[in-house]
Structures are given as structure tokens and as C-alpha cells.
Amino acid sequence: MMTEKRILIVDDEQDLCEILQFNLNAAGYQTDVAYSSEEAIKMVHGEGFTVHGYDLLLLDVMMPGLSGFELAERLKADEHTEHIPVIFITAKDTEDDTLQGFGLGADDYVTKPFSVREVVARVKAVLKRNQPQAKLLQYEGLMIDQSSKTVRIDSVAVELTRTEFDLLALLLSHRGQVFSRQELLSKVWPDDVIVTERTVDVNITRLRKKLGNYASCILTRQGFGYFFDSSNNS
After folding, report:
1. For residues 164 and 174, what is the distance between their CA atoms, to the nearest angstrom?
2. What does each C-alpha distance from 210 to 64, 142, 159, 173 come to in angstroms?
3. Could you tell me which residues come within 8 angstroms of residue 48 by beta carbon, excluding any fewer than 6 positions away?
4. How many Å is the maximal CA-CA distance in the chain?
5. How do 30-34 and 6-10 pair as beta strands?
6. How far is CA 86 from CA 57, 60, 102, 189, in A?
7. Is pTM beyond 0.85 here?
8. Which of 161, 114, 123, 37 is nearest to 169 (CA)?
């Protein structure tokens, strides 16, 4: 059974907190409420709550005392809490405020007034994006360790470039799914690097040469792209 995701709502408006808590609980999440940033800090770090206890924080920006921005800045500066996703909920909707929020590491930004259904949908999307990837990917004798960034075939290490590693990990983790060259470019190559679709073909060719018997698992779907087909290994 999957553990319920735990959310901390931080807002000085009690009625709003109750509405959010009710709807998030109904959506299957476990929620707590803090009515100030100071209270939130105690709940995150205090007795009865470990620093890893929350999977997401919903933060109001405008609160008496420590603001939501200031709270987020403190949490993101702490190695024990920097991993917790943050969604700001606020009446401040100017471009500067939005940029400040994202600059502090926010994962999303919702302005008041808002639809509660929208907030629940955004919470779901952020939590899905922040799910930890499987550390080990394996197909028969082919094993990828995403923690150490290593690849082994029948226990023998295979030297791959970073691009080759990322391509293989993506294809193997989505067996049977065809990725177009443009999709591979957007998922594997950095946004600030200008490359052509031909670059994908070159790297796939190099990757196949290093995979030995498993080269035949990376197939081309003419006119569409590439995919990992485990049924094609012989």
C-alpha cells in the first residue's frame, strides 16, 4: 500500500485553511495546518515531525511576521528541507512577485481567488513531477544504476558518455514507447545547447555499438523515432 503524501498548509486565514484541508484530505492526502511561518517552522523541525515528514508545502505569501517568501528562503537554504516542493498561494500576482517566488525555488504559484479543484490538480502535478526516479533499471543482464551513473552488461562495466547514458535510461525506463527525435532532444540535451535531429541518430548509433547483444533492443520506427523493444533481443 502506498503511503499517503503529507502536505503542510501555511496560511493565516483559518477559513481558507479549512477549505483546502478538507478538499486535500478528500483527494487522499494527509494534511496539517500552520497559521504562521513561525508555527510552520516548529512543525517541520519540531518534536513529532522529522525534517523529511512533508512531501509538499502550500505557502501563503502575505502573513504577519515571517512572510511566505522568507519561510521558503529559510527552508530552501537548509539541506534537510531544501528538497520539499513549494506551491505559493497568494493575492500578489504581479510579475515581480511571481518571479521572486520562482527565484526562491517554488514549484508552482497560484493566485487568489482560485478554484480549489485547480489547487488540488496543481498539487497532484507537482507531487508527480517530484517523485523519485527508480535508482536501478534492469533488463536481463543489462543494468543501469542511476545513483552512480553506471551501466553494466553481465556484470561488466560499459563506458558511456552522459548523453548515451541518459538516452539509454530514458528508453529503458519507457519500454515500448516511441520517442521522436525532437522529444529525445528536449528530454536529454540541455536547453541552451543547439543541436540538430541528426545528433540523435549519431548518439543512438554510438550507443548501439557499446551495448553488444542488447544493441538490437534499441529499434527505429521509421518516420517516428526510437524505442526500446525487449522482445527483439536474441
Report:
1. 16
2. 60, 12, 8, 18
3. none
4. 66
5. parallel
6. 5, 10, 10, 26
7. no
8. 161
> Which grid cell is 18?
479549512
- Residue with C-alpha cell 537548509? 78
231 phi, psi to nearest 5 deg: -75, -10
Nearest alpha-carbon partner for 164 in 207, 127, 103: 207
Residue 16 grid coordinates: 481558507
Please check whether residue 172 is in contact with residue 142, taking contact to mean a CB–CB distance below 8 angstroms: yes
- Provide φ and ψ at 43, rounded to 5°: -70, -35
Per residue in 32-74, pLDDT (tens digit) is 999 999 999 888 876 444 344 788 999 988 888 888 888 888 8
What are the grid coordinates assigned to 7, written together?
Answer: 502536505
